[in-house]
Design brief:
The protein is mainly alpha-helical and 483 residues long. The protein starts with 16 loop residues before the first helix and ends in a 12-residue tail after the last helix. The protein has one domain: Sodium:dicarboxylate symporter (Proton glutamate symport protein). The longest helix is centred in the first third of the chain and has 39 residues. Bound molecules: aspartic acid. The site of aspartic acid (ASP) has 15 residues, from helix 20.
Length: 483
């Protein structure tokens, strides 16, 4: 390291997304959200036209067309999934290791834990209250409620959910449960894609990096920086295909399910969508009160990840765009956004919590089971835990719902009724999950005092970038108080 201005290593900031993803800027200028919205509308329209129920094409032909239409979308998702594990690992570790001081890191961690758990409890409670007030179960013909016999794939799903269901709470088993949260073999967690364990490992690694002298942490810090940069470059390229991908994914979804899934369940679907709207209002109010953001501005700023969450059914696949939005549109400090979003995508799922609570109340009404006050509290607690454990990928939320149902003693056979509709309702809850992560960013950005401003963080990254380019040298800048 040379040059008077750049002294010995003290603090390192994550690279600004601006430098990671130049191409993203061009996409934003090209209004990616609008292209995605157009892709969605065209996809839904095309899918409904091809759906066998409309009678233009036979079922096998429609399914075949659907598979081909969805090909770009499935490739798109596969590319993003390919980089999600390394990106989460690199972002969380660097986000922690870049903390300006350990006290600030602690207050961010504690504040974030409060926000995640608090807002998820509110979401689950909203699900319960809305379910009890609007009673969607009473608007469904009870004759359609499937008998206790489960068959085919739904039986498998129910069995998987039951297996996951929490065993009765036991103080004796608790220590083992806590120990099992920690990955004893991190590589194993990476191979099996266990996000919660990967997140915990990343946090431990980040804290470890913080505790060693900068000379020792620098190589790994730089390596993780490269991983992050490469992952974002891949995402930036792949994102150019988002509108086409979204078109095909939604077309196939409509060919497979169509409006038929709503038969007899329209009231339930309407109540779920209403619940999500209420949660959105709650998030916007939180962003206003705790984050000082104008609700309409906030809504406009988050439209891109919101729509992508809806189209991909996955908060994990949306994560790179969520990070970019937090930093570039909402102007959150990179050191916070790159740490909060990956963590939130894995653990903070308000939409899922609301849905699981509401769906359980719906099923209980369907089977005329009265849930006592105590049972409702158990339901809220179970849902909060279950939503944290729900993977941020498509199609697994319903399995976790099965585990919630069995923990409160509601028959799983009702799953057969909602399984088709779930793929549509999942889109709404995924968009809300993504919104909750962005609100966490603006809240923490306001509440965690900035030792170093956002501009300064970005400037440091730019200076470092410049030195690396001009001198072909690795450099770490001491950004505190103007190097
Ligand atoms: N697919 C949702 C997500 O990725 C999770 C869920 O199914 O509830 O956020």
């Amino acid at each position: 390291m040379k040059g008077g201005t750049f002294s010995a290593v003290e603090h390192i900031f994550p690279k600004s997304q601006k430098f990671l993803t130049g191409r993203f800027n061009r996409l934003v200028q090209g209004r990616l959200w609008l292209q995605v919205l157009i892709g969605m509308v065209l996809g839904i329209g095309t899918g409904l036209l091809i759906n066998p129920d409309t009678g233009f094409v036979s079922k096998p032909v429609a399914n075949g067309i659907g598979e081909w239409l969805a090909l770009p979308g499935n490739l798109f998702l596969a590319f993003i999934q390919m980089i999600v594990v390394p990106l989460i690992l690199a972002s969380i570790t660097r986000g922690i290791a870049a903390a300006t001081d350990v006290r600030q890191l602690k207050s961010t961690g504690v504040g974030l834990a409060f926000y995640f758990v608090g807002s998820t409890i509110v979401a689950a409670a909203l699900g319960v209250v809305i379910g009890l007030t609007l009673t969607p179960g009473n608007y469904v013909d009870r004759a359609v409620a499937p008998a206790a016999e489960l068959a085919g794939p739904v039986a498998e799903l129910a069995a998987e959910g039951e297996a996951r269901a929490a065993k009765p709470f036991s103080l004796v088993d608790l220590p083992t449960g806590i120990t099992e949260l920690l990955p004893t073999n991190p590589l194993n967690s990476i191979v099996s894609g266990d996000m919660l364990q990967i997140v915990i490992f990343s946090i431990v690694l980040g804290v470890g990096l913080l505790s060693v002298p900068p000379q020792s942490s620098k190589p790994l810090f730089e390596l993780l920086g490269s991983v992050q940069e490469i992952c974002m470059a891949i995402v930036a390229t792949v994102m150019m295909f988002a509108p086409v991908a979204v078109f095909g994914l939604l077309a196939q979804a409509m060919i497979k399910t169509g409006p038929g899934v709503l038969t007899g369940l329209a009231a339930y679907a309407a109540v779920v969508v209403f619940g999500m709207a209420v949660l959105l209002v709650f998030y916007l109010v939180t962003a206003l009160v705790l984050g000082g953001r104008n609700p309409l501005e906030m809504l406009r700023s988050i439209r891109e990840p919101f729509l992508l969450g809806f189209s991909t059914n996955s908060s994990a696949a949306t994560m790179p765009v969520t990070v970019k939005t937090a930093e570039e549109v909402l102007k959150v400090r990179p050191s916070l956004s790159q740490f909060i979003v990956p963590l939130g995508a894995t653990m903070n799922m308000g939409g899922t919590a609301l849905y699981q609570a509401l769906a359980t109340i719906f099923m209980a009404q369907l089977y005329q089971i009265d849930l006592s006050m105590g049972m409702l509290l158990v339901l809220i607690a179970t849902t909060v835990g279950a939503s944290i454990g729900t993977p941020a990928v498509p199609g697994v939320g319903i399995v976790v719902l099965a585990s919630v149902l069995s923990s409160v003693g509601v028959p799983l056979s009702g799953l057969a009724l909602i399984v088709g509709l779930d793929r549509i309702l999942e889109r709404f809850r995924t968009s809300l999950n993504v919104t909750g992560d962005l609100v966490a960013c603006v809240v923490m950005d306001r509440l965690v005092p900035a030792k170093v401003s956002r501009e300064s963080e970005i400037r440091s990254a730019a200076e470092r970038e410049h030195i690396q380019e001009t001198r072909n040298e690795d450099v770490v800048i001491n950004s505190r108080g103007g190097h």
